[in-house]
Each structure stands twice: as C-alpha cells, then as structure tokens.
Known about the structure:
Shape of chain A: globular
Number of helices of chain B: 9
Radius of gyration of chain A: 23 Å
Number of strands of chain B: 17
Oligomer: heterodimer
Largest sheet of chain B: 6 strands, mixed
Number of strands of chain A: 16
Radius of gyration of chain B: 21 Å
Structural class of chain B: alpha/beta
Amino acid sequence: MNDLMLTEAVDSPREISCAAERLREVVQQNDISPQKILEIFEQWAAALDDRELRDVPGVVFLRLWLRRGTLEPILLRELGPDYLNAGWREDGHARLRAVPLGVVGHWPAGNIEIQPVLSLTCALLGGNGCLVRVPSDLREITQQIMEKLQEVDQSSLLTERTLLASFDHSRSDLQEAMARAVDGAMIWGGAEAVSQIRKLPFPHWARVTAFGPRLSVAAMDAETWCDEAERSSWCRRLARDVWQFEQRACSSPQTLFLECRAGCDPDKFVKDLMQAFQDESRLHPRRQIDPALTSGICLSRALWLLENTENRAMFPASPEWTILLGKGNEIPKPTQGRTLSVLLTDDLFKVISKFDGTVQTLGLAVKSAQREEEIALAAGRKGVDRVVKLGRMHLFSSPWDGTDLIRPMVRLVRHVRSQD
Amino acid sequence: MTTPVEIARGIESQLTAPLYGLDPKERHDCLLALLKKELAYACDRNPRFRNYVEHWPVDFQTADTIADLPYLPVGTFKTNPSLALVDANEIKRTLTSSATTGQVPSRVVLDGETAKRMTKGVTTIIKDFIGPARRPYLVIDTPENLRTQDEVGARGAAIQGLGSFATEVICCLRSDSEGNASIDLEKLLDCTAKWKQTEVLAYGFTYVIWTQLVQPLDRQGITLNAPNVRVLHSGGWKRLEREAVTKDAFIEGVASVFGCSTDRVIDFYGMVENVGVVYPDCEHGNKHVPAFAEVVVRDPLTLAPVAAGQKGLVQVCSALPTSFPGFLVLTEDMAEITNYDNCPCGRRGTSFRFAGRVPKAEVRGCGNLETTRHHPGQGNGLHE
C-alpha cells in the first residue's frame, strides 16, 4: 500500500510541506500519459461498482465520470488531440505543449460526498500531483473510493501522485502550509469557505481556481407543464434534482419558475409535484438531519405563509420536503433541505432579467426549441453558466462555473525552435 | 365560535389548577381543548396566522394531541410588524428577547390581560420553588433594567417578573458614562450585612452574575456571607460555554461567593415568546411543566415527539397569551426528556433538561451564498 495515498490525520505544517515536495518530485521525474490515466480511470470506474459503495451519494455518477467516453471528449475540447497523444501541437512557427502545474491543492466543500475525488481527477488528468484536504465528514467515504483506485492502480502511477490530508478547517497553520506548498488550487465551497481559502498565502505563481458559491434555479414554460402526458415525468426529474445533495450543491434547484398562461391550472402541476416529492422521499428517505436545518425548514414554511395570505405551501409533518407556492420573478433566499419555492410568473424572460451572477445552472423544460435557445442566450448574458434539461442539473461536466476543469491546472509551454 | 370570555375562563382554570399535581392525561386533555379554542380565536383575529394554520398537515380541530397542533418557529416573532391578535391601542407592553449583537430580537405584544397572566404564571411557578414569602430582593444588574417602559427586554422582564416577591429592591451593579456595568461593592456589602439573618432573593442573568459578580469578588477574595439567599438565574449559557464554565462550576462559584449551599442556586429556563412560563431546576436537576403549559421535545429528523431519555428540538406551549399567537412555539434550543411523569421531586408531568442551543450548521456547501449583487433586500426578503 502506498503510504502517500492514505487519508492521513495531518498535524504539523512540516508534514504537509514534505509531502508536497515528494509529490512534486514524482510529477517532475515521472511523466504519465493521458491515455494511461484514462485507462486506469476506466478500471477504477469498474471497481467502484461495489455493493458497499452503492448507497454513497454520487458514486453512480462518479463511475460515469471516470469512463473514457466521458473524459476523452473533455480533454479533446480543453487541450486538443495532441495532448491526448502526449505530444506537441503546431502553432504557426511555434509548438505548444501542455505540462502539469506541479502540485495542485484541493479544498473541496463538505456537502458533496464525491467532490474530493472529482476535484483530484481533474488535476490528475493534467498530470499533476494532488494534495487534497478532505473534510472530516467525508474522510471515510473518500477513503473507500480511493481504495478502489489503489486496487486497480497496481504500479501506483496515480496513487503516488496523491495525498489525502485530513485536518480541522480551523487549523490555519496547516491551511497556510498547504497553500504555500502548491502550484495550483481548486477551491470548492460556500462564500465563507472560498473567501477564507483565497486569502491563504499561495505562491505568486500559483493558479487559484474557485468553484462556487452559486445557486441554481429551474424554469418551465406553460406549454410543457400544461401537457398532462408529460407533466408527471417532468415533476419526477425535478424531484431528483432537488433530492440530490440535500439541495446544498451549487447546481441544486432552489426555486422553480412556472410560466403561466390562461387555461392552465397550477394546482394540477403542484399535485403532480407533490406526488413526485412523496415518491422520491419513499425511494430516498433521509437518514439524518442537522437540527439547524430542521429549524430552518420550519421557519421557511412559517415565514412564507405568514408573509402573504396569498402564499401557499405543501409539506408533511416531518421536515422531509416542502413546496412553497406563490407568485414572483425573483429568487427567494434558499432554505435547502428539499425546500423548493415554486413561483408563478407570466414571463420567464422577466425572471431572467432579474438574475445576477449568482445563478450557476438554469434547469429548463421548454417546449419550443427556438424559445429555449432564446432563453439560454438571455440567461447566459445574465451570468448563468449552465443551461440544462431538468433532471440533469447535477451532471458534472466541463466547463463548470463557466471555467474549464483541466486546462486551468496545466501550463502551455511555447517552443520556438532555435534553428528555424 | 369560542368567545374571549370562554377562553379567559379556561385559562383561569388552568392557572388555578394544582401547578404540578395534575394527572398528565387529564392535564393534557384540558390543555388540548383550551389550545384548540385559542388557535381558532387567533385565526379569526389574524389572517396571516390563519393562512399558516390552514396549511398545517393536520386539521387542528381534529388533532388528538398537543404535539399535532400547529406550532410557530420562534424566528417568526422577529418579523415586522410583529404577530399580534389585538389592535395597536390595546397593546400595553412589548417584550423583546435578548438578541446578541447583529441579531434581530423577537418582539411579543402584551395587552393588559396577557400581562397580568404573565405575572401570575411566573409568580405561581417561582413560589413553588422558593416559597410565598416576600423578602429583600437583590438584583444583580443595573437600575436601568428596573424601569417600567413600554418596551421591555428579556432581562428587564425577568427582573421585574420577580418583583412581587420583594419587600425592597437593591441593584448591585452600576453603569459608567459609557454604559459599562461594574459592581457597586459598598452597596452590596452593606445590604448583605443588613440581610444576613433574612431570607433573600437574588436574581441576575447567568453571564452577568458570573462576569460582574462572581469573578470580581472571587478575584478580591470576598465572600458575602449570605447563607439565606436564593439565587435565581436565567438567560442562557452560550457566553459561559465559550469560557468553558460548566453548570456545576457556575453553581459552586456562585454558592462560594454568597456563602450559601449549592442547592440555593437555581437555574431557570424561559423566553419572552413563552409568556408567563419559566422552568426552574428541581432538586434533581430537572425542569418541570406547569398546569398551564406543555413542552414537546421533537426529533429533528421526523419532528415527532421523542421518547424519554432522548434529545431533540424544544417546543414550548403556553395557554396564557391572548394578545399574540405564542401558544405553541418551536424554539432553537435542544433538550432531553427525562421523564413524562414521576420525577422523584414529586412534581408530575413532563420533565426535561436543557441541552444547549441548536448548533449552527458546520457544513457549508457550494450552494451557500452569503452575498448577491442585488441591492439590499432584493431576492432575500421571502425566506429570511
């Protein structure tokens, strides 16, 4: 077993700087071809098809993510075909080649179980070494997933490039040591976490890329939700998007804007949506909850109904799920915890005009392709980075937050031949 | 339709019933019937409240238990305008909670009747723990908190609520020109010397007692030699927890400074939103529910009542208010149900132990936004 790969409880800045040096040496001394990485990832995906991991949220997606069929097109788009063949790309009278930054530090958020692994796969695809701070709640899950990599990576080509470090987020000495030791950083999280990590003393050459904080919304036009044949399946898709990650992900829909027209009854839609929520609840019941979230859900329900006597809400006696129904064009403050605001609007473009840069993903269900294109463009201009079909809001792909996932963690070396 | 007179009779009946002596089932059924009438009345008086109650998953009129009735989360009392069941001209006092810096306090409005019941409720409960006699009252606070005003904070309300036990009142803290409180040692030593042989009542907020009385006197090695004092304190442990002061250390520190036994130091739990009800610790360390109130401890996962021995979110209930809908309030506190009856102290009904504030969520995900580019208020107003 490679001792670099274990999720170690790190206790001193020196441990971190030494580990980073070892990772840097590995990266500098041993080139690894993208094709080889894709091959190991493919085997890793197969190894993750394990009964023990089946209930871990996101592992099904991770298996899909690690497939060559998913990653090769991303590498092609971000870095071009020559990178896949570990070669130089002609660029006029010069040549370009992507090389790893070196050691990339990863600060994943604590709310997405597979995020430490997703983050490190992006940097590994660039040939980097990875120093990952694993949030304490995710330590066990991350370890389980990484053990599967260890099983298939017989020559330790990837595991020797990886260190998973576990320490309390309040240990500023360790956070600083990690920042000083890296050449690049991938930061994921809420506003407070991202702004604190950005302030760490990274070397001036380090490339720091932050993902989040963002929020996401869903929207449906009247033609879609009034169609009785399709309505319940759209509701099921939306419920799946709401359920994943307890609505704490930046790609989680917090509000559904429902475009209305004469003759369409929102009550019928809400009835189907309630059914979809109940079904999803049966399939994926909560096993635990933070009491603060329970308080927040109860308060949201009450404030919504007390604020305006026209507002309505549907919820069971437990905090399992909540639908807050009203009218409006603006995104209410999210509650999370499977609490969806459903706002009736007369025009989706009015809604989009209110967006600021905080909206990451717009999940859509729109009948007319032309209108959808117009909506996508309008949303893009108002800061939305992803416009996707409802039910696929969490599908992790590149670009994310409008940024490539692999390209930021490599350098493009330009070579002009001296003899030319 | 239930009339206010019928409700008033029902409340009076609960207020005069044996405080901790009723059979739990009998008490529950009486209270359930009364709370249903109060809810119906509140729905008539306040359309916003009615909208909330009408959306509750269980029709309150057919509910079999108090736990099924619609409760309001405590944060709803922070809204502006405050939730009221009376017209503005009927409001005699407004109570505000002790919000820490940057937080919005709760505000509850009292009409004359509710204010009277609040005093009666608190007095009846405290009497059960310290006896009915009037005695000198040492307020471990500044005189500013004794002033009668239209708007009273939690500290002032608690201090004034015990005033009916007082033969005379002395405040042993003073404020400087910048509002900083410090001990008035001369006054304190004078009065404790004068009251040495007398039963004395002392009250202060928990952290005020610790930081303004116990610590300064301890540093100076002063003991007050007041063995007959009863020290009541309330107001939360958050600040003391930050200084790693345990409940036991607090009690021993207070007893040591006063020169009394530790059983004379009594913690009580109360909140302005749960009007007229306080929960002092009995000699077995448990808090008890009086005849006109109830406590439900709810499992955060299901919101169903927990079994004895389990912890959860505290919901307090009081039959006393008719000026605001504070009958059933879900707090942001945690507690453990110690028993649903038969505490060794002899008090019947639900007993519980406070287990701290609901911890703030630690995990903050990538969907956790704290700032937007919107102007203040836009897009943030609906779910505050």
